[in-house]
Write a structure and sequence with these properties.
This is Transcriptional regulatory protein OmpR. It comes from Parendozoicomonas haliclonae. With 241 residues, the chain is an alpha/beta fold. It has eight helices and twelve strands. The protein has two domains: 126 residues, Response regulator (Rossmann fold, 3-Layer(aba) Sandwich), CATH 3.40.50.2300; 107 residues, Winged helix-like DNA-binding domain superfamily/Winged helix DNA-binding domain (Arc Repressor Mutant, subunit A, Orthogonal Bundle). A hairpin with a 3-residue loop joins strand 10 and strand 11. The protein is elongated, with a radius of gyration of 19 Å.
Amino acid sequence: MENNEHILVVDDHHEIRDLLGQYLSRHGMRVTLAMDGVSMREALNEHDDINLIVLDLMMPGEDGLSLCRHVRSIDGPPIIMLTAMGEEADRIVGLEMGADDYISKPFSPRELLARIKAVLRRSSRSSQKEESSEDSDRLRFDRWVLDNNLRQLEDDSELVIPLSTAEYRLLSAFTNNPRRVLSRDQLLDITQGREAMPFDRSIDNQVSRLRKKVEVDPKNPTLIKTVWGGGYMLTAEVVAG
């Protein structure tokens, strides 16, 4: 990975914004700074080579969750969210909306740099995997078809079931690894490009929501099974077509 990635830093506090801009620039990265949602959208329109967004959660005007939703709707770059201490619920919602990692304020620029590099590495590997699996645009399992081009789910009567970004990533992880136990740590790494934090249960919440869409009886799941002490497993055979 070349050390000239383009990072967009979005934070309404100019001290934090400027400090991060200077620090990342000293480490060989190109940096664009934005003070709010309006300037972030302008930067994304102006630059088509942004590799990652560092996005503050709490900002006046349009907040980080809304901006994260926008970036995911346009299939934008990975996002690392900056959150205040104690905002666990907001962090989980952010991850479920498609943020790739988060870091709590106060933080050291060195830690943020390490997380940026880790997310970029995982994003690169994920893109390579997606490109290698593009031959299988539609994957069939049980009574479902996952359309990887449209990122949507269809049942056997061709009824479309909308998927959030987090739900699509999770289901894609399962269909790419059928009948294989995936731990919470693995699912977090695959779907969100980060290592699991202690007691992180955002994957459990996502699995619960996904089960409500694919299981006949979500309270007694048979398609996405819980493997006690291990994680989760898609029990169905997956075929292309």
